[in-house]
Amino acid sequence: MAAQDASPRIKHLSWGRLEVEDQGSTRTYKDAKLWPGGSRTWDWDETGTSHVPGVQPADVKELVENGAKTVVLSKGINERLQVKDETLDFLDEQNVEAHVLQTEEAVDRYNELCEREPVGALIHSTC
């Protein structure tokens, strides 16, 4: 996997703060979208996402379009963020493996996976 296509590594997680090493620079987010070759702020208002009903198919579409073959979805530090069934169905239809985990577990899994495959993630750094 070429460096420009590698998934950015998460360097630090604390309540409300995520530090991501993306193409040689550190970027700071509250909530982040990560994919092979890039990252950006995960703005819930773009898709109408809220804790309930949770992560929308439109939230993960960008990750798949940018080459993610596996996607890690965080449920928040206190696991308050849900994931819609339609979102998991969409990933399944795209032949993309999904991992839905509590945020610290999601960060660990994501960092482990990004060493060996094109992975994307939605990371929620609070509740």
Describe this structure in words.
Helix content is 24%, strand content 33%. The protein is an alpha/beta fold and 127 residues long. The strands form two sheets. A five-stranded mixed sheet has the order 5-4-8-6-7, sandwiched between helices. Helix 1 packs parallel to helix 2 (85-93).
List the helices and strands and how they pair.
Blueprint: E1 9-14, E2 17-22, E3 25-29, E4 31-35, E5 38-41, H1 57-65, E6 70-74, H2 85-93, E7 97-101, H3 103-114, E8 119-124
Parallel strand pairs: 6-7, 6-8
Antiparallel strand pairs: 1-2, 2-3, 4-5, 4-8
**What level of helicity do the residues show?**
10-25%
Mean pLDDT: 95
Report Rg.
13 Å
Morphology call? globular
Task: Produce a short descriptive summary.
This protein is α/β, with parallel strands linked by helices.
